[in-house]
Write the structure tokens for this entry.
Amino acid sequence: MSPPGSPPRIDSHQHFTSEYLPSLLAPILKRNRFDGTVAVASRPSVEETHWLLSLAAGHRFIRAVVGWADLADPRVGDLLDQYRRHPKFRGVCYAFAGELPPGLAELERRGLTLDVSSGFTPAIVERFPALQVTIDHVGTARATLPPSLARYPNLYAKISGLITQAPTAWKAAEFQPAVRAALEAFGPERLMYGSDWPSYLPEGTWKAALAAFTQAIGPQTQLTREHLLGGTAQRFYRLDTEDAD
């Protein structure tokens, strides 16, 4: 676990499936001295979101849930309010295409977060300056983070999913240019680590995902590592400080 007085160590991006459940992840986190995770919906499914919230209710190490909602639905506010009855619900993950959906205003109004899995456009953070947004999977071919985007203070990013596409054949040199450019432009206060567990199983491992991240960022100060490995996630998702399982 994280040393006393330090931010909790948080895996800011992982999933659960019927095969890969919290009982498998909890001991992995404990062995690697991580305090908790943010569970992110892997499918555009209201049912999966409710399931993740039920898992979070039974496992303290699941510190937050990022679910899914159809932001183009004019009644999406009702669903968000339903989700918000659970204390660990923090926001939604949404893939964009075309016009910005009206549900973004509902997220902003409620102080919820937005994970962008693909299709990010600066118009999101320009039009909704109070909406906290993170781009997932920076450092991979699935997401780009031009340094010019750093001027938007409500935009964050996850260095996540580095080994997902090549669980056993990855090389840190592939990730280093994008990861270090993001670190230089955004600073550690707006970047966070995510494993993307269990997307690379059974070939890859949670520990290999962490190793890819560690090698990609290179030597860093303790303070920088504390931001990347939990401090930023704690602020972005407004996580509590309770002990994990």
About this structure: The chain is about 35% helix and 20% strand. The beta strands are 10-14, 36-40, 62-67, 89-95, 113-118, 132-135, 155-160, 191-194. The CA atoms of residues 164 and 200 lie 5 Å apart. The chain has one domain: 10-236.
